[in-house]
Amino acid sequence: MRNLFHRTSILVLRIVALLVLSSATKSSGAHLCAAELTAADIRTIQQALDAGQLDDARKALSQTESHDSLELRYLRARLDRGSGTQPAPDLIQLIEKPADVEVRYAVLHPSARQIVFLCRDGSLRVLNLTRKGSEPKIVKDDNGSAVYRGQFSADGKRFLSGHENGKVIVRDTTDWTVVTTVPVAEGWPVRELAVSPEGTSFVAENREGLDLWVLTPEPKKIVQLAKRLNFGEGLAFSPKGDVIATGGMFDITLHDATTGAVLKTMQHASYTMGLEFSPDGQRIASAPRGNVNKFLAVFDIAQQAQLFNAGPFGNYIAGMAFTPEGTRILATGCEKQVRIVDSTTGEIRLSIPRPECSTSPGILRDGSLFGWSEPSGFVYVDLREVTEEQN
To answer: What angle do CA 11, 327, 57 make, to 5 degrees?
Structure first.
């Protein structure tokens, strides 16, 4: 009881200090912006919500007029849902994985409240998040080969899946019919896959390397971008679809998406397997994997310069997703937390505790929902749902 009183007292003192600082700033004629709420301030507000001290959290959040950053929108949504002196709900929702089949992970649609479970029996299980409790649409053909990778095109109109038997299947997401099947590497699993924004080209791993393919007018291999590595590779298309990033041992290599020609290289660390472009295409995030270099870095592409290199963390970053405005990165991994990271400084703005490893994060294009995959299923926070229920 004494320890609980001590922790509560410290939390109250932190909130009082935050409010005093905010009052002093306002009295001088200045207005707080999101940058003036430090990561420590954000943690204090989060702790107040967890402790049911909603009035204190409300006062602290009222000191900033900004609603833009992901962490502030999340905290405000928690506050809006809370009541009385009970801890504010964390808003975490879980869609359990299908019980009748082994699942690799789930993928979030870029602009719709829809997820796809990738299954070992070769099927896709498509679920609408707005229809809770509904049965998934099971998408399966005669292929029957385990799904290793899956990705939507940025416009959401196509879904490409890479299979154990070396085929890439292209589907129209309107009705999930097969558009075409591309034999990328017979008898070799497609472990890595990246899809162009309009779904008209892709890069996939085969036995020898990473090959660039175009789908129109007919599927055709253009060029091999890089050699295959035993531990895997990083792959990403730029938002405009004109540049492809590959990663491997130490370098991040940028290629022309039409010819495959090398445009630039940047060095980060060994096993550069996690790559993600910012929404404006001017920066690229890199998260090496393995037991040595547990970092998250962001590079300015034009300057070929590292903006920051955050870490080392307790475990490697297993997935990244930029927020639509590009100021934050949602980072997943196996430290039992999902992090919201400032994409310009590398500062951890907020951590969401989780019981399991997490991977494959996604954020809807309008920023109203974010989520990630866990061994138990797909976990998400729907910010729009909170707003609609309050209205």
So the answer is: 20
